[in-house]
Amino acid sequence: MTARRPLFFGTGIVRTFRVTVKHFFMKSLAVQYPHERIPITPVSRGMLWMKGAIDTDTGFVPSFTEMPPCQARCPGNVDARGYVGLIAQGRYDDAYELHLETNPLPGMVSRVCPHPCERVCRRGEEDAPVTICDLKGFMFDHVSAGRRQKVFTRPKIRKDKKVAVVGAGPAGLSVAFWLGKCGYDVVIFEKLPTAGGALRAAIAPSRLPVDIIDQEVDDIRKMCVAIRTNAPVGPGGLSLDDLFAKDFDAVFLGLGAHRKIPVKGQAKGADTPPEPSRSEKNAWLPEQGVNLDDQGNIAVETGANQTSRAAVFAGGEAILGPGVTITSLGCARRASQAIDVFLNGAPSDYWTNGFPKQDTIKKRYDDVTPRLAKAKPGEGVLNPVHPMAEKEAIKQAERCLSCMTEECIGCHICEKYCPPQAIKITTSQDKTRHIDSYDIDYGKCQLCETCVDVCPTRTLTHTPEFETADYDHADMTYDKDKMTRQKPLRVDIYAKEKK
Amino acid sequence: MPQHKSTPQLMEINLGPQHPATHGVLRIVLTLDGERVVKAVPHLGYLHRGVEKIVEDLEYFQIPPILDRMDYVANLNNELSYVMGVEKLAGLKVPERAEYIRVILLEFNRIMSHFAWFGPFTNDLGLFGTAFLYGLREREYIQRLFERTTGARMHYNYFTYGGLRHDIPEGFVEEARHLANRLPAVIDEFEYMVEENEIFRLRTIGIGPMDGKTALNFGASGPFLRASGIPIDLRKDEPYSVYDRFDFKVCSASGGDCFARYKVRMDEMRESVKIIQQALDQMPDGPVRAKTTRHLKLPKGEVYMRTEHARGEFGAYIVSDGGVRPYRLKLRSPSLSNLMASCVLLPGMVLPDLIATVASVDIVLGCTDR
Ligand code: SF4
Ligand code: SF4
Questions:
Q1: B26 alpha carbon – ligand 1 mean position (Å)
Q2: Which CATH superfamily is domain B50-340 in?
């Protein structure tokens, strides 16, 4: 459809020509503008803000909601940053106590774990990963007898409920520990003459010395009413009905999936070899009301550890199939929480009253030197051996970059990668190693956010502010105090991710 | 002393580098005979920052922010050639979602760039003010979407090898769809504003005609080349990313003059809108970044990756010696080739036509000078 319209132009020329109706001027003006539809939040990549720095009191409290890569990668979510930070401070006992919150068997695990945490260690991107697993072993060797005594003591307030744990493997032992900590009476039933499960039966003593197993089993024994060895549950022993008849309120099935014979020269990474006849071994369970899945593992509700029979829980290799010890421990921890909620109605205080995270931020660090060449294999990595010398261990622990703690540790990484070299950091070389100065020159900064990307602690974040003009060049350089000064306008770009 | 009447009075003047009509810091030394141009010699380098040398000192992940500063009107297009080159050499597979988001933003970026060209172009022709503001106003709406998505208004630093630096914000799809839906009307409005205007027509039709063969010989590309009747578009001829999944036309015109260049850009924006709409419909869920390391080491070798920039073929030639930094990064700028091609047109023109012709080429000095 066309129409003829006269039009006037600024030059005074009057012409008549054909215009299609769709070209009609007013029509497009009637189109709504986007800002009327969707409120636009200002998340401009403006000047930087440092949430906190280890030697300034900014009043900013790190949230600790985001896990560092090592913890996120660990199947048991062990707080490696936390205990490594405590080791760096020389607080081995505290490190041990923190460690038990997610893994009560650090001695055994340190000898057999394929340590996936080290593969994702942020420090590995700079030179070489922190040898987290060796530090675990070091920590186990150096914990004081007094603290060991203290943490392996059953709490005074008891819950007056009994739990039977079937199998004294890593999963069973750790469930016994956590439920003991929550105040339950735990009895472990093991069909073999000794406790330790796969770790004792299938790992060569050269790799995992027997005295370490004995030590940790003895520790756990203190958390239980008893560990009954030579007491099979299933064929030739007690049935689940027998256990409930004996006044047990809940049963945890921590049946291993390992073979009994020690295997020599096992492949690295697989600390438990596959068991060929899992279905046969578990064949007695369906008769007792506990269903199995296609692979012969115990079937549990997705995302829970509850089996098809009420008050019977399972975890570890019994539901996962053969795997890595730490994976079993992570599963066992969830099972313990499920049993606790089942028996208690709500989670016990133990799960929330953990070691104060704030304390785990280490106050000393080994800075990554600017323009440091990436270490070649074997270089820059401290000797990964047992036992570790104390000096070496502390040095190693100080290499941790305290990822995601939202406190600047003066690691120099932002300085190293800022393309226009706008950042200048000086750190003292004495024992305290505090950040002497931290300056960003906004005359040079191009607001590219490379520094925000590389900052391991995520203390650096952008703000929607732009104040990059001043009368004096010196005023364009923002120091640590200016950087940590919090303003209400500033937003946290990671806030959305965290939720 | 009496002058010979027959000798032309030649005058040498500087056009630029600080002149509003040179769109940046282009300096053209003109030899004029009255209003008529006898000789025009462009002088480059006023915005030379040594980008190609700077990047040799940077690791691969640090480079995109520097490339943003080349063609600062269509920066995402600069980033693309580079990151795709790195991906090609590293053998990285980009998640589908990231590819789609890239395409949506790239096409918006192209439209933004053409808007930013449209305004000053009409300004140079004497349509002072109104069309200029219209162009920038429309650009602003897209700019806001970009600001919300990438965090920056200009130097986005959003693409990275393996995908994007982070995911798009909430409400992006709705906002992008709304923008895309209203853009055709906006483009119609722009056309309506200028196309039937006497002055606009007189000053563009038949001005600075370029024949396709010369343009090709100069290595011209993009809308400038397509306006001379050669429909070369890398998005169609050498489909990269997911461009082969969209239905769109390669716009070309045969005139080769300023009006043809204007027309090609206008048509091209409509095609971009179509691409955006299809991409928004097809965009899958999923991650936006492939698993890769920060300190990426490229295998020893070389790669040339070219993409269809808003202004033509933008190429990144990466030579790797196996380290974490490029041994050499050569960047091919479409602005430079197009400017060089257009310079053959200038002698013989009257001065105002020269302004119109240079403006119609659409150069960005950050890119020619790098
Ligand atoms: S890396 Fe450097 S230039 Fe980029 S935002 Fe940080 S301080 Fe500024
Ligand atoms: S990269 Fe290191 S020095 Fe820079 S802000 Fe982050 S923690 Fe501090």
A1: 29
A2: Cytochrome-c3 Hydrogenase, chain B (1.10.645.10)
